[in-house]
Write a structure and sequence with these properties.
The chain contains five helices and five strands; from the N terminus they run ββββαβαααα.
Length: 149
Amino acid sequence: MRYEVHTPLKGYSGTVADVVFTGGRAVVDGSQRAALAYFHRHGYGILPVEAEPLDSGGSVADAAEPDQTAPDEDGDESDGAGLPGEPEPPTATEQEAERLPKPAKNAPVAAWTAYTAQLLGVTADDLGGKTKVELQELVAEHEKKGTDQ
């Protein structure tokens, strides 16, 4: 099974967990379980991609993958990676309605950009490609202003 993954930062282009994103979107193979688990934990949108018909000769049934929710040898339907057998991750609309948590200091610049944009009420484009250190400084200044009032 393949999954379409959307970054929390709209339009992000770059590499996260060895997956290349273009315009905030990437398609990930189900075998990339570590990457999918990372994306699930960090609030990326993850949607299953429907099987596409074959171009020549075969039928859609030939192209379909086995049932991904069938129990494995230990009877567990879930692998803990936010894949079939677990509740669906929040939709993009639900994610936008929620406040992003403050990222860890070592989180990717994309996470800091999304958090800073949300905190300051601006778009990622308004932040002009700032470095992670610059974003962290903006957040610290904003938090300091909040405590000074």
